[in-house]
Amino acid sequence: MDNIEKLRVILQHWIDHNGGHVDEFEKWRQLMNNEGKTEIAASLEEAKTQMNKISDLLAAVLKDIGEPVAGDHHHH
Questions:
Q1: Domain total in the chain
Q2: What are phi and psi of 72, to 5 degrees?
C-alpha cells in the first residue's frame, strides 16, 4: 500500500470519526440548551460548524487524490 492509498484510508476514517463528534456535540448542545445554558449551547453549535468545515476540507482532499482502488478496505 503506497502513501496515497494509506492517506485515502485515513482521510475516510477521520471524516467518519468527525461525524461521531458532531453527533455528540449536538446531543450536548441540546442538553445545555434545555438547561438554559445557552452560551455553552452556542459554543457547541459553533464546534459542530467548525468540525463540519474540517470534514468538508478532508473530503475535498479525498476527492482530489481520487477514488480508492477496488478491494481497498479499512480494518482496525
A1: 1
A2: -70, 125
The answer to whether residues 72 and 5 touch, using CB atoms and an 8 Å cutoff, is: yes
Q: Is the confidence at residue 76, as pLDDT, over 50? A: no
Q: Domain limits at 12?
A: 3-65
For the stretch 7-46, pLDDT in tens is: 999 999 999 999 999 999 999 999 999 999 999 999 999 9
pTM summary value: 0.79
CA distances from 43 to 13, 20, 24, 27, 48 (A): 25, 17, 13, 13, 9
Residue 23 lies in a domain: yes
CA 55 to chain centre: 5
| 71 assigned to some structural domain | no
